[in-house]
């Protein structure tokens, strides 16, 4: 589904990703862990196409297409979704209107007909029920005055509605209390299927107690230096990132 | 890939679609201003003597006045002797019904989306159509007459209802008021007059559509609305002009009078030609609008969506004289390219327990300059007066400007005055967030701007809300780089 080869990228002339390789197949959940400054968020931003990030070499294929050639909204149309570390407020823009616009933009991109207002309302209701989320989030302007937990829940709700092929969760656990963390994890788990994939980017192992990954990768200085199963996350938690750093230094 | 700033700048590009010109034979005065021109206007309109005298007094006063320079706007000096003060489409014969109006004129209004024909009229909206210096048609007149409502051109009112005109003309904006209002008092050519009798709730939206057509012609219209005790009226004005390389002058005066328990809702969609992308041409819009809440429990609400004009200078205001009276001002002003706007309101609290609300949203794009200027004045007599002001500015790109000049003058210690202000930039973060959800930059900007203006748009009558939304889009729309 997603294949990253020798990706080098940075911002303002500073190289942050220094030759990253990663393969993700449908149905898989990958966790990418790393200390601050290891390049986790840069990876998320480069994949979603944020302005200001410069790719100097390597390539990224998403469902057979050259991802780096596409505009951010085209990437969304292809089925890429990013849950933001810091979701942005859109004052005065109603959540339901925002989501319907997004949903129908993606349908148009795929050459499908738009969903009518009433059908979409019913569809959203179903998703809210599935995630056990209050629909109240949608009758308010997007993220305006939301608590940190509400913002993250809203991201997961948007993900459920847009139903992406690949979802990237960029430090979705940061700043969440345990209850909110469970709601978010519960949402992700319900949306897991054999056809879609999830990349969980996190600093801590905590979230991975609830979203159990198939693969764990450790990012260090812009490269994946260690990969393994879910137990790698626990080992990291016990021994710290210094352990990985020493390990690579010895090699 | 273009940076988002470039994207935003190129986004703010769209041609003015009302820029066509109607080729129609006109009866015009020579350019220039003197007593003879004023006498000519007055006689063309077969005005009563008192009106001519009033005009001449205003003209005398105006000659002694100086053009104000305190506003945050820049423009080359206007030569008032170059302006044509009267221009009217030539009438072929005396009109008995709308069907006899020159088909060219009817076509013009149809192109503007204001059909005047009986069978195509806007449902629920009565329209007075003003073309250059004169009113050419008023729809639904008979229907309104059944309720005793007077809705006609100002010239007609001066002839048919001189007692009302005499009583209220200049009662809110005296002919000595300010440079532009005084000029208007001397040379105004037409406009709309509305009278709502006691206890009548006007069953239709009343609307005037102003169109400047002739070259080098200024438009000086005057609107007077009187709502008698316990009445209600919602009035709406729209305006457009052809695209021309030279600037044209528009100096209007609007006076509103609300007696006991009366409520006037006045909405404006101002879309005069704003000039081209380099700032060439466009309308200079110097307008004095003021409402007097004369009676107890009366209410005047101003709502304006200002998207046009090269220069906008207007401060729709309320004098809250009656106890418990309420004044409201809701405004969206957009300045794009080289447009400049200095706009806001004055709320003068005189009566007890008077309340005012100000919500102003300024959007600047291109190299536009957008200023909010407002005065909240609480007089000594205004026990228990309250004001709430909110002034928000939004910037698109980094070459435009937003400015706020709030003046607060409180002479009564029981007053409660609140002022909130914010300035935001359409963030690259906000646009990226929308993009990531599959939404194009164009749609994202439009969505964010609508969200920003929502409280004001919600105040517009239903019939015009859609039009206003579309206009906002057009004003900011364009090719996305």
Tally of individual domains of chain A: 1
According to DSSP, the number of beta strands of chain B is 23
Shape of chain A: globular
What CATH calls the topology of chain A is Rossmann fold
What helical percentage do the residues of chain A reach?
25-40%
Residue share in β-strands of chain A: 25-35%
Share in helix of chain B: 10-25%
Main sheet specs of chain A: 6 strands, mixed
Q: Helix/strand/pairing class of chain B, anyone?
A: alpha/beta
What oligomerization state is this entry in? heterodimer
User: Radius of gyration of chain A in whole Å, from Cα?
Assistant: 18 Å
Provide a descriptive summary of the structure in words.
The complex is a heterodimer of chains A (251) and B (481). Chain A has 251 residues and is of the alpha/beta class. Chain A contains eight helices and ten strands. In chain A, strand 7, helix 6 (178-191) and strand 8 form a beta-alpha-beta unit. In chain A, helix 5 (148-162) runs parallel beside helix 6. With 481 residues, chain B is of the alpha/beta class. Chain B has one domain (4-476). Helix content of chain B is 23%, strand content 34%. In chain B, the strands form three sheets. In chain B, strands 5, 6, 8, 10, 11, 13, 15, 16, 18, 20 and 22 form an eleven-stranded mixed β-sheet that branches. Chain B has a ten-stranded mixed β-sheet with strand order 4-3-7-9-12-14-17-19-21-23, covered by helices on one side. Chain B is globular and about 60 Å long. Mean pLDDT of chain B is 85; it is low at 1-13. The A-B interface holds A 48-51, 71-73, 75-77, 81-82, 84, 87-93, 97-99, 101-103, 105-106, 109, 141, 158, 162 and B 1, 3-4, 427-430, 432-441, 443, 447-448, 450-455.
